[in-house]
Amino acid sequence: MALYIPGYVTGVLLNQRTRKEPTMLVLSRHRDESIMIGDDIVVTIVDIRGDKVRLGIEAPQHIPVHRQEVYEAIQRENRKAAAPQENGQLPASE
Amino acid sequence: MNISTSRFGRITCDPKNLLRCPDGLIGFEQMHLWAVLTEGNLAWLQSIEQPEVALPTVSPYSFVPGYEPLFSSVDLDQVSGTCADQLLLLAVVNQHGREWTLNLRAPLILHWEQRLAWQLITRNEQPLRHVLSRTPGTRRKTA
């Protein structure tokens, strides 16, 4: 299904048929082109080299922006720290 | 109030001393209420909602004197309101093989007077696993 957001982008909504996953909008952009999320977040393709894309993100200060892998790594770290078997025997400090 | 926990068995704590995390903790976003138990220089955050979840934390400054996390002013405003001088900072202790590590990337910021805490991600690069040269320690009493 094609989606047209006036003035901005043309994209395709995936998973409209399966509905198993949250819907993901997939867009094609060239260097220096942007997408807008809501009316106050702008994501710009700053550079493309090989398989690496540099993104510029303009967002209001109250919206935290983190690399997904950083957030996920912290989630894993917390869950591991809380796992009973791992910290079962805290050694004595010297 | 009495709480049953997997790690500490049944514990008694004053409801007034429970720590509220409005956003939960990262990876435990649905857990908003925590008891704080101290054990030597460790402070355990024991989930009230999940008996098996308990996170050991320490003040990182006694292990990493030069630790300088940067936070966005918006994050800190949300935490402190107007009294940034009353904030405490704790880092989660972890074990990787035989090594003990501190998560300096996402410390907990506590406003103890209000019994409020948030886990914030630093704006500057900080290690997720800072290896400790000595182990955090032992005895336990209820806060």
Overview of this structure, please?
- The complex is a heterodimer of chains A (94) and B (143).
- Chain A has 94 residues and is α+β, with helices and mostly antiparallel strands.
- Chain A is built from one helix and six strands, in the order E-E-E-E-E-E-H.
- Chain A has one helix spanning 68-82, and strands at 2-5, 9-13, 25-27, 34-37, 41-49, 52-58.
- The longest helix of chain A has 15 residues, at 68-82.
- Chain A starts with a strand and ends in a 12-residue tail after the last helix.
- In chain A, 6% of the residues are buried.
- Chain B is globular.
- In chain B, strands 3, 4, 5, 6, 7, 8, 9, 10 and 11 form a nine-stranded antiparallel β-sheet that branches.
- In chain B, 33% of the residues are buried.
- The two termini of chain B are 13 Å apart.
- By secondary structure, chain B is mostly beta strands.
- The A-B interface holds A 61-62, 64, 66, 70-71, 73-82, 84, 86-87, 90-94 and B 6-7, 25-28, 39-42, 52-56, 72-75, 92-95, 103, 105-106, 119, 121, 128-129, 134-138.
Number of strand elements of chain B: 11
Largest interface: A-B, 24 and 35 residues
General form of chain B: globular
Give the terminus-to-terminus CA distance of chain B.
Answer: 13 Å
On the 0 to 100 scale, the average pLDDT of chain B is 87
> N-to-C terminal Cα separation of chain A, in Å?
65 Å
Morphology call of chain A: elongated
Report the strand count of chain A.
6
Residues in helices of chain A, as a percent range: 10-25%
- Uncertain runs of chain B are 139-143
Order of helices and strands of chain A: EEEEEEH
Whole-number average pLDDT of chain A? Answer: 74
Give me the number of helical elements of chain A: 1
Report the portion of residues of chain B in β strands. Answer: 35-45%
Structural class by secondary-structure content of chain B = mainly beta
**What's the helical proportion of residues of chain B?**
under 10%
- Counting helices, strands and paired strands, the structural category of chain A is alpha+beta
Please identify the oligomeric state. Answer: heterodimer
